[in-house]
């Protein structure tokens, strides 16, 4: 295929993001152009009202089903302080995995007993601070349990509130959790050291987004609670981690993309398999996924998970990240340069793919960016405005891949040739939608001494001029 001679086939199938009235209001306001001028680099805008709505929808499922539940926001999904502030205001918990995350959650108003500390191995300083503040600790190994018992045995603090993390039977090669023999030994240690550690229940880390395996494993953990109670341990809660899917686009767009994409759709003939991509469409995302999970009948049982939880007096804990951040922010880059290459455009923007984290997992962030002109208006489809002839497809669009302002060949924000309404110009803005969940800051670093993108909190979108402020992150 001569992709340089056929612009229509050179451009990848479109993957428009789901409608997002709040983000669209920000784009219409002209604010992105002003912020790009003010910060002189890429920036993220955050929409805390969306976080509140996602959290409320999740909590509503517990109320509907009568299941006792607790949500801990997975802080690793986005480092902005505003999310922790919202958790503190709503009485929501926070999932942390480092000393820095724990200190920041405490500093932004979340009480220690509303924190759960996860991670495969934890420093002694993290253990000590967590115990002092009565945080719940997910214990991942016998060594960690022994360390906690020894820490509390010093008489300086305690007892430690713990969950025992179990190795998923469906993922036996996972590096997280205790296998069956280790779990039995851990229960004996908890029974002997009841003054030092208080076993509150069990947890697991399960990769993937399928709901039935999560329901099956949740039922296994409920069984562990019964076994712990037989030893005199008061286990009354289980944590199912995160893994609630998020939907970024309509099913037909995602399905078409997976079916039609090939190396000719990417700069430098890059290739991806369908399995390389996050499932950008889900028929039951977020709170709907929790509702469906609770309605599933676990393997070997005759009633849904919700009934098993209620019969056992078990509280369901969960640690969503991406699902709480759906449509809660976007990332804005400024175009620095454009050149034509074999029938498509290579656009360079003033940032790096560190701000679109899928690139660092050998994948591609699929929701299409929106092109705004330098004044902040959405770019019109008007070939007559071209300053130089550019090959276009039958629909009038041109194809463009997007690279970063670094010296690395691999630093591409979008390998795929995106359909844009006109050729970008220096000073235009590219807005990548719905990036708050893991994308915008998971791997950011000041590479090339480039500043980290600012985080701008949009507190009001229901006005002609949205109100904004810088996020109050400690760092």
Secondary structure topology:
Blueprint: H1 7-10, H2 21-28, H3 31-39, E1 43-46, H4 48-65, E2 69-74, H5 81-90, E3 93-96, H6 99-107, E4 115-117, H7 124-132, E5 136-139, H8 142-153, E6 160-166, H9 180-192, E7 197-204, H10 211-230, E8 237-239, H11 251-260, H12 286-295, H13 305-311, E9 315-318, E10 329-341, E11 344-349, E12 370-372, E13 398-403, E14 412-420, E15 429-432, E16 454-460, E17 467-470
Parallel strand pairs: 1-16, 2-3, 2-9, 3-4, 4-5, 5-6, 6-7, 7-8, 8-9, 11-13
Antiparallel strand pairs: 1-10, 10-11, 10-15, 12-15, 13-14, 16-17
Strand content: 15-25%
Q: In terms of quaternary structure, what is this?
A: single chain
- The CATH architecture of the largest domain can be named as Alpha-Beta Barrel
CATH fold field value of the largest domain: TIM Barrel
Structure description:
The protein has 475 residues and is α/β, with parallel strands linked by helices. The protein folds into 2 domains: 7-47 and 327-470, Lyase, Ornithine Decarboxylase, Chain A, domain 1 (Beta Barrel); 48-247 and 282-325, TIM Barrel (Alpha-Beta Barrel). Helix content is 29%, strand content 20%. Strands 1, 10, 11, 12, 13, 14, 15, 16 and 17 form a 9-stranded mixed sheet that branches. Helix 4 (48-65) packs parallel to helix 12.
Characteristic key phrases:
single chain, 475 residues, alpha/beta, Lyase, Ornithine Decarboxylase, Chain A, domain 1, nine-stranded mixed beta sheet, 13 helices, 20% strand
Give a brief rundown of this model.
The chain has 475 residues and is of the alpha/beta class. It has helices spanning 7-10, 21-28, 31-39, 48-65, 81-90, 99-107, 124-132, 142-153, 180-192, 211-230, 251-260, 286-295, 305-311, and strands spanning 43-46, 69-74, 93-96, 115-117, 136-139, 160-166, 197-204, 237-239, 315-318, 329-341, 344-349, 370-372, 398-403, 412-420, 429-432, 454-460, 467-470. Strands 1, 10, 11, 12, 13, 14, 15, 16 and 17 form a 9-stranded mixed beta sheet that branches. Strands 2-3-4-5-6-7-8-9 form an 8-stranded parallel beta barrel, surrounded by 7 helices.
């Amino acid at each position: 295929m001569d992709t340089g001679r056929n612009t229509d086939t050179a451009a990848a199938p479109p993957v428009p993001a789901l409608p997002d009235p709040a983000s669209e209001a920000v784009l219409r306001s002209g604010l992105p152009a002003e912020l790009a001028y003010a910060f002189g680099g890429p920036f993220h805008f955050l929409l805390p009202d969306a976080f509140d709505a996602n959290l409320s929808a999740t909590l509503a499922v517990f109320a509907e089903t009568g299941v006792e539940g607790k949500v801990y926001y997975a802080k690793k999904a986005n480092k902005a302080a505003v999310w922790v502030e919202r958790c503190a205001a709503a009485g929501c918990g926070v999932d942390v995995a480092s000393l820095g995350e724990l200190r920041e959650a405490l500093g932004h108003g979340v009480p220690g007993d509303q924190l759960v500390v996860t991670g495969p191995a934890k420093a002694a300083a993290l253990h000590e601070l967590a115990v002092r503040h009565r945080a719940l600790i997910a214990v991942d190994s016998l060594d960690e349990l022994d360390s906690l018992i020894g820490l509390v045995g010093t008489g300086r603090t305690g007892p430690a509130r713990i969950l025992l993390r179990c190795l998923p039977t469906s993922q036996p090669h996972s590096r997280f959790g205790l296998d069956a023999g280790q779990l039995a030994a851990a229960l004996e240690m908890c029974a002997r050291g009841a003054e030092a550690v208080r076993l509150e229940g069990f947890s697991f880390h399960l990769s993937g987004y399928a709901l039935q395996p999560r329901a099956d494993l949740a039922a296994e953990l409920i069984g562990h609670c019964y076994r712990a109670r037989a030893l005199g341990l008061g286990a009354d809660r289980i944590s199912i981690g995160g893994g609630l899917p998020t939907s970024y686009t309509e099913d037909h767009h995602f399905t078409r993309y997976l079916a039609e994409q090939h190396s000719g759709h990417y700069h430098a003939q890059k290739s991806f398999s369908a399995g390389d991509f996050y499932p950008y469409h889900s028929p039951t995302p977020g709170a709907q996924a929790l509702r469906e999970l609770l309605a599933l009948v676990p393997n070997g049982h005759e009633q849904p998970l919700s009934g098993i939880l209620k019969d056992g007096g078990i509280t369901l804990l969960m640690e969503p990240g991406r699902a709480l951040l759906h449509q809660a922010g976007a990332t804005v880059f400024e175009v620095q340069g454009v050149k034509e290459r074999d029938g498509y455009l290579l656009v360079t923007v003033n940032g790096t793919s560190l701000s679109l984290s899928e690139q660092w997992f050998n994948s591609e962030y699929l929701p299409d960016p929106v092109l705004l002109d330098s004044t902040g208006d959405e770019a019109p489809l008007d070939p007559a405005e071209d300053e130089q002839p550019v090959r276009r497809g039958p629909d009038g669009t041109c194809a463009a891949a997007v690279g970063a302002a670094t010296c690395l060949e691999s630093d591409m924000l979008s390998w795929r040739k995106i359909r844009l309404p006109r050729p970008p110009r220096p000073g235009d803005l590219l807005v990548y939608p719905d990036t708050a969940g893991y994308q915008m800051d998971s791997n950011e670093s000041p590479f090339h001494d480039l500043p980290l993108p600012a985080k701008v909190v949009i507190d009001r979108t229901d006005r002609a001029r949205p109100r904004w402020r810088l996020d109050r992150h400690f760092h």
